[in-house]
User: Fold this.
Amino acid sequence: MLCRVTVTATERRLATVETIADIGPIPDADSIVRARIRGWDVVVKVGEFEVGDPCVYFEIDSLLDVTDPRFAFLAARGAQTAADGRRGHVLKTARLRGQYSQGLALPLNLFPEVLERVPGTDVTTVLDVVKWEPPVPAQISGVVRGPRPSWIPATDEERIQNVAAILETERDDWIATEKLDGTSSTYYVDPSTGTSGVCGRNWDLLESEDNTLWRLGRRHRLHELIEATWPDARAAVQGEVYGEAIQANPLKVHGQHFGLFTIRVDGAELARGDWPDWALELSVPLREDLRFPSSVTEALSDIDGLRSAVSPDRPAEGVVWRALGASTVQLPDGTPSRASFKVLSNRYLLKHDR
Ligand code: ATP
Ligand code: MN
Assistant:
């Protein structure tokens, strides 16, 4: 089977047509087994699938409409109401008999509308799957100027389970940064319109005295620094805002903070090796204690008990790996890919109900 996934900042491919790559036993369990789909492990019933069987695979964070009879069985496990009013069950990390299980695999023949699709095809829209987004508190959401400018991509990171081939690239300058569990923010200067702006995940926010993202931008003088460093360019820095009153503050830190992770200048992502000193000083923590993993399994086990660098008593959510000297890399099959991916701790996801 050929499965191509490139790391680009696009909408998530939450539902895809896939093939069961492997099936293995779970110690002390006789009615369930572990199925491997891309880099994901999913617990399924014995006999439900065989290696090579086609299926539709739904990733965690998918909201599956429980009024669709094929998803109705999930209603008993809980349902949420999405922003557009639909009721659905949200897929989250689970653990059965010690085996992590992420996402849902259902036989392809339940989905006549996608029966013809080849493995790897994204069927998120056809099957009407949407991503569950937790509500954003008012202090962060602020008053909206408009959507995030189109020249600034969302701050998404692809999961290692979806880009395992990236572990085989030739580069030897990968570095791990800690993934801080807060909310995404973007600070930009656009000389063509004379705008200095601040965006949350999706929206461009009007300046206000008490909006958290704006306050942090002023505290670190981000707009002045951007303007002074790239005077004639459209430039943006992106980072995580975390701390008190943000996402339940899982790191239990005092105050509110900004950790920078991405810089974009005139449409291109700047490799970390080209960052100015002030940006390095504001960076999310580097995790030089980690070695570049050689497999998905190793990547996951390396961070399983990782402690946060900003809050040493707390577990870290995970890491984001970046190449120091390049913003894109070539995968072994020749496809270009963003030189970045995330590895999230399954233990952390389970604990935080994601
Ligand atoms: P999804 O996987 O659906 O995109 P999400 O948008 O909630 O989920 P996360 O799983 O939180 O994304 O992972 C990507 C986000 O991680 C980025 O949008 C960014 O806000 C945040 N982040 C935190 N720390 C880092 C870091 N060190 N490097 C890059 N991104 C980071
Ligand atoms: Mn994202």
